[in-house]
TrEMBL record:
Domain Bacterial purine repressor N-terminal, chain residue ranges per copy: 5-74
PANTHER family in UniProt: HYPOXANTHINE/GUANINE PHOSPHORIBOSYLTRANSFERASE (PTHR43864), PUR OPERON REPRESSOR (PTHR43864:SF2)
One Gene Ontology MF term: DNA binding
Lineage: Bacteria, Bacillati, Bacillota, Bacilli, Bacillales
Keyword Transcription regulation in annotation: yes
Subunit structure, as described in the record: Homodimer.
UniProt-listed NCBIfam families: purR_Bsub
GO terms classed as biological process: negative regulation of DNA-templated transcription; negative regulation of purine nucleobase metabolic process
Domain (Phosphoribosyltransferase): residue spans on this chain: 114-253
UniProt xrefs under CDD domains: PRTases_typeI
InterPro entries found in the cross-reference section: PRTase-like, PRTase_dom, Pur/Pyrimidine_PRTase, PuR_N, PurR_Bsub, WH-like_DNA-bd_sf, WH_DNA-bd_sf
Pfam families named in the record: Pribosyltran, PuR_N
Protein family according to the UniProt entry: Belongs to the purine/pyrimidine phosphoribosyltransferase family. PurR subfamily.
Name the record gives this protein: Purine operon repressor
Length: 280
């Protein structure tokens, strides 16, 4: 077996680690692949960890013992996160997004894979210390966001439906009141999609009063599941919020349909302990 040069090892190891967030890779895997001693592999990992940490991509976590190894923990430092949200604020502020009735067009943002990847990285940082079994969202616009987060946390996604589907099998259904129109909506989740007692992170694209998220929380109660966090990409003012605790990335403070202006600012995520990293 040909021995790899250190430069080649560093490139290949970095690629493998970043392609498998939160997955434990045994040191023996690297040692055998590169025909190198574990001591050399450990030195390589220390270099990769130093660069990742200094550039704000994340850290490497080493697990000792016979079944040990190393895993990549995605994190984004505050400086990088601010740049992402500055871009999001700028794009949301475009007056051409204003639709009839004061609604905002956001489908282009939710279809931008580069932006979604960065947002998923931010959420993975915010909730890095939580033990998460499943990410939950509601159809349809929240789905891309949920999968972007799931990629970095390496957990499955469950999708709440507004309408019952035969292909879902037996479902649990709750009624919820939307905060804006005060209409009653049904939310359904397949019994097979979520195990009882799961620890769930809720991710959604937009929240005004929070009626839909409130409904998802009540639905999770039927599964005896625990809500470990709620993440919202865009928060909007409402007279009364139906959700007590949540993390927002950006906040739309005003939509002036006459003047064709949208005012957007950073959400409350900046005040979280998980984002208080040194700006690099």
């Amino acid at each position: 077996m040909e021995k790899w040069k250190r430069s080649a090892r560093l490139v290949d190891m970095t690629k493998q680690l970043m392609a498998q967030p939160h997955q434990l890779i045994p040191l023996t895997h690297f040692a055998q692949k590169y025909a190198s001693a574990k001591s050399s592999i450990s030195e390589d990992l220390a270099i990769i960890d130093e660069v990742m940490s200094s550039e704000g991509y994340g850290t490497l976590e080493t697990v000792t013992g016979a079944a040990g190894g190393v895993r990549y923990i995605p994190q984004m430092n505050l400086a990088h996160a601010k740049k992402v949200l500055e871009e999001l604020c700028e794009r949301l502020s475009n007056p051409e997004r204003i639709l009839a009735g004061g609604f905002l067009y956001m489908s282009d943002l939710l279809g931008d894979v580069n932006l979604l990847d960065k947002i998923g990285h931010i959420w993975a940082t915010v909730f890095a210390k939580e033990k998460i079994d499943v990410i939950m969202t509601v159809e349809t616009k929240g789905i891309p966001l949920a999968y972007a987060v799931a990629y970095y946390l390496r957990v499955p996604v469950v999708i709440v439906r507004y309408d019952y589907r035969v292909t879902e099998g037996s479902v649990v259904t709750v009624n919820t009141i939307t905060g804006s129109s005060r209409r009653i909506k049904q939310l359904s989740l397949s019994k097979r999609s979520l195990q009882e007692g799961s620890r769930v992170l809720i991710i959604d694209d937009f929240m005004k009063a929070g009626g839909t998220i409130r409904g998802m929380i009540e639905l999770l109660g039927e599964f005896n599941a625990e809500v470990v966090g709620v993440g919202v990409m865009v928060d909007s003012p409402a007279e009364e919020k139906l959700v007590d605790s949540y993390v927002s990335l950006v906040n739309i403070t005003q939509v002036d349909t006459k003047q064709r202006q949208i005012h957007v600012e950073f959400g409350n995520f900046l005040h979280l302990e998980g984002m208080k990293h040194e700006e690099n």
